[in-house]
Design goal:
The complex is a heterodimer of chains A (359) and B (151). Chain A is an alpha/beta fold. Chain A is built from 13 helices and 13 strands. Chain A has helices spanning 15-29, 74-81, 104-119, 132-140, 165-171, 191-205, 221-233, 247-256, 271-278, 291-295, 307-319, 321-335, 340-358; strands at residues 2-10, 33-41, 51-52, 64-69, 85-90, 126-129, 146-149, 177-182, 209-214, 239-243, 259-262, 283-286, 300-302. Chain B has 151 residues and is mostly helical. Classes of the chains: A alpha/beta (359), B mainly alpha (151). The interface between A and B is medium-sized, with 41 and 27 residues.
C-alpha cells in the first residue's frame, strides 16, 4: 500500500506546500511508502521533493490518495478517475465574489474550485479540514463522509532563522508604533479596513505610528493600486506596502511589530496569526470565518470592522503593559496546540484509523 | 500540568473603548475605499467594456510615440551636465527608443484595426442575418428536393 499526496501546485514556502512536505516527512518517518505528485512544482524546491503529475504511477485499489483541495484546477476532475481510496484535505477556497471586481481569472478559478469541491463530495471516503470553519464548509458542500479537523503544519523552526538586520535597523526602536499585517494583498483580507483603523489611530491617537502591509500583490494589482490610491487620498503617511519580500525580511517585520492587526473577512485558517504569536506580537483580529478557531481564545477578537474600535484597541494594547503581557502569554499557550509533533501524531493516528477501516 | 489561559475581559475593554471613542472626539472621514475608481487608477480591465475599450484605444493611439529627446530644465550648470549626459548616452538610447516606437506603431495600428472591426461587427444585424441563413437553408433544401424528384 502506498500513500500519494496530490495537489495542483506545490509552491515554495506557501502554507499548503509546507503542509504537504511536512506530511510527507511524517509518513516517511512512520515507515509508509509515499510520494507527492503535483501538476506544477516550484523550481526552488529541492530535487525529488515531488514528481510531476503526468508521471503518476498506477494507483492500486488499497493505495491512499490525499488530495489537497485549495483551488480550481483540472486535477480536481482528474482525481475522480484515479483509483485508490481518497481523502480530501481541504484548505479552503475563497468565495469568488471577492475577485469579481479585480481579477476575472481569479474569480473564475475560485468559482470553478467551489463547484469542483462540491463535485468531489461523493468521491471522498474521508476528509480532513485545517479548521472547524473549513469542516463546516465541507458539510455545506455535501460531504457526508467522516471529517476530522487537523491544523496545518507550520515550519516553526524556520522562524528561528536570522531576521534581516537592515529592516530592523530601519524600523525598530525609532519610537514609532509598528502595526503589522502579513498576507497576500487580496480583497478578502480587507487591507482597506486595516488602513481605515490606522487612519484613526494615526490621526487621533498616535502620529508616531507606522502601518506595514507585508505581502505580494502579484496578479491582483488592481486591488493594490486601489489601496495605494486610497492611502494617498487620505493623505496618510507611513503606510508601507512591501510587496513580495525575502523570508528574512518577513521575520524582521515581525520582530519590529508592536501589534498584529487582521481585519480579514474570509480566512480558511490564517497562518500569519500563528506567526505573530510565534514572535510574541499581540494579535487583534476581526471575528470572521476561521479566525476565532485559529486564535482559540488567545489574542483579541473584534466583533466588526469598526475602524475607531480597532484604533482604540491598538492603543490599549500598546499602552497597557499588563494587558499586552497577558495576551502574549495566552498566545504562547495557544501556540502549543500547533506543535508539529502533536499535529503529526494526530495525522498519523487519522491515517492508521483510515487504513484500519478497510482491514 | 496543562497551562490555562488567563481571562481577558474583552467585553469590559470594549465598553471602555466605546466611552473613549466618544471622549476622543473623532470626526468621521468622508472618503471611502469604494470611492476609489479602480479603472481610473490602473486603466486596465480584464473584461470587455465597450466605452472603456474605446477610451483605452484612444490613449494607446495617442501615446504610441515615445520621444527620446526632451527639453532640459534647470539652472545653467544643471542644463550643461544633463546635456553632457544626454550626448554620452544618445548612441545607446536613441536606437532602443526608435525600435520601441516602431513596435508601438504596429501594436497601436493592430489594436485600432481590431477596434474598427469590433465597431463594424456591432453594426451587423445578427437577427436579420440569422433569418437570411434560415431562409437560404430552407431554399437549398427545397432545391435539393426538386432535383431529387426530377431524377
Amino acid at each position: 500500500m502506498k500513500i500519494f499526496q496530490i495537489l495542483p501546485v506545490l509552491a515554495f514556502g506557501d502554507a499548503v506546500g509546507n503542509d504537504t512536505r511536512a506530511l510527507k516527512d511524517a509518513l516517511l518517518d512512520a515507515g509508509y511508502q509515499t510520494e507527492i505528485y503535483a501538476a506544477v512544482i516550484d523550481e526552488r524546491l529541492p530535487e525529488g521533493t515531488a514528481q510531476p503529475f503526468d508521471m503518476m504511477e498506477k494507483v492500486e485499489e488499497d493505495d491512499i490518495i490525499i488530495y489537497h483541495l485549495s483551488t480550481g484546477h483540472e486535477l480536481n476532475q482528474k482525481l475522480k478517475s484515479l483509483g485508490g481510496r481518497k481523502i480530501i484535505l481541504y484548505h479552503n477556497i475563497t468565495p469568488e465574489k471577492y475577485f469579481q471586481k479585480y481579477n476575472h481569472g481569479a474569480y473564475l478559478n475560485c468559482r470553478n474550485g467551489l463547484r469542483e469541491a462540491r463535485e468531489l463530495a461523493p468521491v471522498a471516503e474521508f476528509a480532513i479540514a485545517d479548521s472547524e470553519y473549513n469542516k463546516q464548509d465541507l458539510i455545506r458542500y455535501g460531504y457526508t463522509c467522516d471529517i476530522k479537523v487537523l491544523p496545518i503544519l507550520i515550519p516553526f523552526e524556520d522562524y528561528e532563522k536570522k531576521p534581516n538586520q537592515k529592516v530592523i535597523n530601519k524600523y525598530g526602536d525609532d519610537g514609532y508604533v509598528n502595526i503589522l499585517f502579513t498576507g497576500r494583498v487580496v480583497p478578502n483580507k480587507k487591507q482597506e479596513d486595516i488602513i481605515d483603523a490606522f487612519y484613526y489611530y494615526k490621526k487621533f491617537i498616535n502620529p508616531k505610528s507606522r502601518l506595514i502591509l507585508v505581502g505580494s500583490y502579484a496578479g491582483i494589482d488592481r486591488y493594490h493600486e486601489q489601496l495605494e490610491a486610497y492611502v494617498k487620498a487620505l493623505d496618510l503617511e507611513d503606510v508601507l506596502f512591501t510587496g513580495q519580500i525575502k523570508f528574512d525580511e518577513i521575520l524582521a517585520y515581525y520582530k519590529v511589530a508592536d501589534v498584529f492587526l487582521c481585519m480579514s473577512e474570509h480566512e480558511g485558517f490564517c497562518v500569519p496569526l500563528l506567526e505573530a504569536m510565534c514572535f510574541d506580537v499581540p494579535v487583534i483580529a476581526r471575528d470572521t470565518s476561521a479566525i476565532a478557531g485559529t486564535l482559540g481564545g488567545s489574542g483579541v477578537l473584534l466583533p466588526d470592522n469598526d475602524p475607531m474600535v480597532a484604533a482604540e484597541m491598538i492603543n490599549r494594547i500598546v499602552t497597557d503593559e499588563k494587558l499586552r503581557e497577558t495576551i502574549i502569554r495566552n498566545q504562547r499557550i495557544r501556540l502549543k496546540d500547533f506543535d508539529n509533533r502533536v499535529v503529526k501524531e494526530t495525522f498519523l493516528k487519522i491515517i492508521r484509523e483510515f487504513i484500519g477501516k478497510r482491514d | 500540568m496543562v497551562e490555562q489561559m488567563e481571562f481577558v475581559d474583552v467585553e469590559g475593554i470594549m465598553s471602555e473603548i466605546r466611552t473613549q471613542i466618544k471622549e476622543r472626539g473623532y470626526t468621521k472621514k468622508d472618503l471611502k475605499f469604494a470611492d476609489m475608481n479602480t479603472s481610473a487608477v490602473l486603466g486596465a480591465e480584464d473584461y470587455y467594456d465597450y466605452p472603456n475599450f474605446r477610451a483605452t484605444l484612444e490613449q494607446v493611439d495617442g501615446k504610441r510615440y515615445v520621444p527620446w529627446w526632451n527639453p532640459i530644465k534647470g539652472n545653467k550648470v544643471v542644463v550643461f551636465i544633463k546635456r553632457f549626459i544626454r550626448k554620452c548616452v544618445t548612441f545607446l538610447i536613441a536606437p532602443i527608443v526608435d525600435a520601441q516606437n516602431e513596435l508601438n506603431q504596429y501594436t497601436a495600428s493592430a489594436l485600432v484595426q481590431i477596434g474598427a472591426k469590433f465597431e463594424q461587427e456591432q453594426d451587423y444585424d445578427y437577427d436579420e442575418m440569422q433569418k437570411k441563413i434560415e431562409m437560404l437553408e430552407q431554399r437549398i433544401a427545397e432545391l435539393e428536393k426538386s432535383v431529387e424528384n426530377n431524377q
